[in-house]
Amino acid sequence: MENPAILPEALPRPEDDGAAAHLPGLILPALALPATDGTPVSLRDLPGRTIVYAYPRTAEPDRPPLVPDWNEIPGARGCTPQACAFRDHFAELRSLGAERVYGLSTQSTAYQREMAERLHLPFPVLSDEGLGLARALRLPTLEVAGLTLLKRLTMIVDDGRIAGVLYPVFPPDRSAAETAAWLRANPRGA
């Protein structure tokens, strides 16, 4: 069984299909998503700068991947390394003006809670299991094994409006560092 925290060599790079080009400037919908800390979160209502990184799904410990060719799907593999990178860069992101960080997937809150505890994430993860946010924003998705999953992207949200989007994200373990670079280049109020 592969270790989900380690990225294999030669993962296929996702292409920029333009599916996130419409997002910068959009106001988030008034929609509360359940968080792993037990609170409902409406991203639209949060003041200041918020980082939301979306990912397809994290692996279940000691379970095979969702489909045998998971590693061959561009952008699918790497959710655990991406979450760990945001954990490891959390203090830096906060020092660069991000008042909060959230993970986002279409997995259930119970599934996400196990992952957040196992990986010692210092931030909550949001569930869009009902696809309300994905549909309202027309987020890029992929279909795997009959499930609709979010494609990997990072949104920088200022006072409920999307100020920036990093898409596609590759490699996933560099996502938090690339977000920090974006924050350095785009300080709030500049």
UniProtKB/TrEMBL annotation:
Source organism of the structure: Salinarimonas soli
* A GO molecular-function descriptor: thioredoxin peroxidase activity
Cleavable signal peptide: none
Taxonomically, the superkingdom here is Bacteria
GO biological process per UniProt: cell redox homeostasis; cellular response to oxidative stress
The record's InterPro entries line, in alphabetical order, gives: Peroxiredoxin_BCP/PrxQ, Redoxin, Thioredoxin-like_sf, Thioredoxin_domain
Protein name (database record): Peroxiredoxin
Query: Which PANTHER family does this entry report, sorted A to Z?
Result: BCPB PROTEIN, THIOREDOXIN-DEPENDENT PEROXIDE REDUCTASE
Q: Where is the Thioredoxin domain?
A: 22-188
Q: Which GO terms describe its cellular component?
A: cytoplasm
Q: Which UniProt keywords apply?
A: Antioxidant, Disulfide bond, Oxidoreductase, Peroxidase, Redox-active center
